[in-house]
Amino acid sequence: MDVCLPGLELLVVLHGFGSMPQTSLENCVGLVERTLGVLSEKERIEQALIMRGLGSDPPPNYNVERAVLLLIMATVLNALGNHKESMVHLDCILGNKDHAKSEGWIVPLAYWEAGVVSWGLGDRTKSRELWQSALGCTDYDFEYATVVLLGLALDKHNDVFR
Known about the structure:
InterPro entries: IML2/TPR_39. By secondary structure, this protein is mainly α.
């Protein structure tokens, strides 16, 4: 795995991708795609070893790592304005919320990003619903910062629809 990934993870939490130049964002997409490929290859190798009776049973679980990578990808794609492509990754996270329980911040930030997608696609009502879902998540790292951001977004939503 790449040593830059923890930095990208921090940029997700701090919402820092919006201020990056397009070429840097495109480099992030490439890095995440390569890392997802490495993760898939590790799973394929582990499965082949299990089939031969050589691997550990059960095999290592990479669900949290995959969810983090998909969230990074979705956040970068949102920053690039590729909202529809971003939603594919977010649907994968939100459709498998139980897999990311050990890292409690993943799901609320996925809801945040899904709200950004909906806002970018012009569906303001869906944005509000998703952001309110994020507010329903509690007791996770960086909760205060996320709640403040969600409050600002919901205030903006209310200002637009007065």
